[in-house]
């Protein structure tokens, strides 16, 4: 008797990001080539399962899309089967999954999408996850695809803001995405030579920020500030752009750059301009790194599917691909911590985070460098 070919569904949920098509291409082609699998593309994330909108994907559908931004399947960041317009339709979604005759489902998404995937796996769906988000805040993995492209876009914007800041002797504020995590602001801030980086993990003192700006204005006559959308002042509140009663995320952040601008105008005598980069960070063609990374993740996910290792998500740990349980990433976020190397690097370079407590004792060059390297004076003489 001829063995039944695998029938695997593929969807991506949450916000779009560069590299989604590379991941769809990799997981689909790998399963087609190595398992003769039939691939079922599901439109617009979990909304496609709710509204029963699918498309069988052939090899040609997955060709020529590696460099394309966005996603050929569409996506959605408001539709959850467990709260769709105020109703739980998860049982209907499970019935549809069974009626499609799927052997498994590959879900490409961030923490919200993979949290929903975990709940569906508990109902009996065979799911393998692939980590994507420009925010880089997914628990259990050192990196998500989309992040590299996003920080490249922010860095380019900072390079451009620097020239106008220099020309007009202004304080230039750039607001990044990232929700409640500061990874984009931290990495792009370092890459773009920011004077001040403000991230959600450490509330800022406006007096500390003003002091840093005054110092930079005195030395170089301009100052560059990067602020993550989830940042807030000590004792203050998040800056909420809008609310969404039935969405996966009940609030959407945005506008803290303008809040910071108004606060600084009361503290320093300088022209200040605020720029909110917004969805530009999500768009366009993926970087070479994200193309390769998303492809690696997709092929590894295909191997998990082929070996029936369901209820898992592909992760990068210590520069090696492996898998972890969906349970380990569901309803969790990976935040910047005090021991994060990039944070220590930024502080050692004199970058201000608007938080005086971070400066003390976090990164001691005297103790952190190997003794074999000798003291600073010894290395200078050498």
Stretches with pLDDT under 50, minimum 5 residues: 363-382
The CA-CA distance between the termini, in Å, is: 76 Å
What is the count of β-strands?
Answer: 13
Structural class: alpha/beta
**Helical percentage:** 25-40%
Net shape: elongated
Order of helices and strands: EHEHEHEHEHEHEHEEEHEHEEHHHH
The whole-number mean of residue pLDDT values reads 92
Helical region count?
A: 13
| Strands in their spatial order, largest beta sheet | 3-2-1-4-5-12-13
Major sheet attributes: 7 strands, mixed
What percentage of amino acids are in beta strands? 15-25%
As a whole number of angstroms, the C-alpha radius of gyration is 23 Å
In words, what does this structure look like?
By secondary structure, this protein is an alpha/beta fold. Helices cover 37% and strands 18% of the residues. The protein is built from 13 helices and 13 strands. It has a seven-stranded mixed sheet with strand order 3-2-1-4-5-12-13, sandwiched between helices. The protein has a four-stranded parallel sheet with strand order 7-8-6-11, with helices on both faces. α1 (20-35) links the parallel β1 and β2. α5 packs across α6 (183-191). The radius of gyration is 23 Å and the shape is elongated. The model is unreliable at 363-382 (pLDDT under 50).
């Amino acid at each position: 008797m001829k063995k039944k070919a695998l029938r695997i569904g593929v969807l991506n949920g949450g916000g779009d990001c560069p590299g989604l098509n590379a991941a769809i291409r990799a997981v689909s082609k790998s399963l087609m080539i190595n398992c003769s699998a039939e691939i079922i593309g599901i439109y617009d994330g979990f909304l496609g399962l709710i509204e029963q909108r699918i498309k069988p994907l052939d090899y040609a559908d997955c060709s020529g899309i590696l460099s394309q931004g966005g996603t050929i399947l569409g996506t959605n960041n408001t539709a959850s089967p467990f709260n769709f317009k105020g109703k739980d339709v998860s049982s209907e979604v499970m019935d549809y999954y069974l009626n499609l005759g799927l052997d498994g489902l590959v879900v490409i998404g961030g923490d919200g999408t993979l949290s929903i995937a975990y709940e569906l796996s508990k109902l009996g769906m065979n799911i393998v996850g692939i980590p994507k988000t420009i925010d880089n805040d997914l628990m259990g993995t050192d990196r998500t695809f989309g992040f590299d492209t996003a920080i490249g876009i922010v860095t380019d914007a900072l390079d451009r803001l620097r020239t106008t800041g220099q020309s007009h002797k202004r304080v230039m504020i750039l607001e990044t995405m990232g929700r409640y995590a500061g990874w984009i602001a931290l990495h792009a801030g370092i890459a773009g030579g920011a004077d001040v980086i403000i991230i959600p993990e450490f509330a800022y003192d406006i007096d500390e920020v003003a002091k840093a700006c005054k110092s930079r204005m005195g030395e170089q006559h301009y100052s560059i500030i990067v602020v993550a959308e989830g940042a807030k002042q000590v004792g203050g509140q998040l800056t909420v752009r809008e609310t969404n009663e039935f969405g996966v995320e009940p609030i959407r952040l945005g506008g803290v750059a303008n809040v910071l601008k108004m606060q600084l105008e009361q503290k320093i005598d300088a022209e200040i301009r605020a720029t909110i980069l917004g969805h530009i960070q999500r768009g366009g063609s993926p970087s070479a790194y994200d193309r390769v990374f998303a492809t690696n993740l997709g092929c590894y996910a295909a191997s998990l599917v082929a070996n029936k290792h369901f209820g898992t998500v592909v992760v990068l740990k210590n520069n090696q691909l492996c898998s972890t349980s969906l349970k380990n990433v569901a309803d969790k976020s990976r935040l910047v911590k005090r021991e994060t190397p990039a944070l220590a690097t930024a502080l050692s370079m004199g970058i201000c985070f608007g938080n005086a407590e971070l400066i003390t004792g976090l990164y001691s060059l005297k103790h952190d460098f190997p003794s074999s390297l000798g003291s600073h004076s010894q290395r200078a003489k050498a």
